[in-house]
Amino acid sequence: MTHGDLQPCNIIVDSERTVRIVGIVDWELGGAYPEYWEYVQALSGSSFMTMKEGDDWYLYLPEAGIGKFFEEFAMYHLIGRMVG
């Protein structure tokens, strides 16, 4: 099962004493998808490919949780650029 839209704006964090995740919201895109899908979707809103200053979201994605599927991400990113 995947969240389908794992982005910083969908993660609720409590930073009062230490930074900890207290919730994940916006599950409408969640479902049973191929193993690489969470990785592809998590990076889709990131400026990973353009390396925008201040956008370090991709550095915090847990490889143990979503895997590392750069080839699949690159393929979907290129397809998106061609049709979008």
**C-alpha termini separation:** 27 Å
The number of helical runs is 4
Integer-rounded radius of gyration: 14 Å
Strand order of the largest sheet: 1-2
Mean pLDDT: 79
Give me the strand/helix succession.
EEHHHH
Care to count the β-strands? 2
The structural domain count equals 1
Instruction: Classify the helix fraction into a percent range.
Output: 25-40%
Beta-strand content bin: 5-15%
Mind describing the biggest β-sheet? 2 strands, antiparallel
Instruction: Specify the structural class.
Output: alpha+beta
Give a description of the structure.
- The chain has one domain.
- The mean pLDDT is 79.
- It contains 4 helices and 2 strands.
- α1 packs across α4 (70-83).
- A two-stranded antiparallel sheet has the order 1-2.
- 36% of the residues lie in helices and 11% in strands.
- β1 and β2 form a beta hairpin.
- It has helices spanning 37-44, 57-60, 63-66, 70-83, and strands spanning 11-14, 20-24.
- With 84 residues, it is α+β, with helices and mostly antiparallel strands.
- 14% of the residues are buried.
Question: What are its keywords?
Answer:
single chain; 4 helices; alpha+beta; 84 residues
Set down the secondary structure blueprint.
Elements: E1 11-14, E2 20-24, H1 37-44, H2 57-60, H3 63-66, H4 70-83
Antiparallel strand pairs: 1-2
In short:
The chain is of the alpha+beta class and 84 residues long.
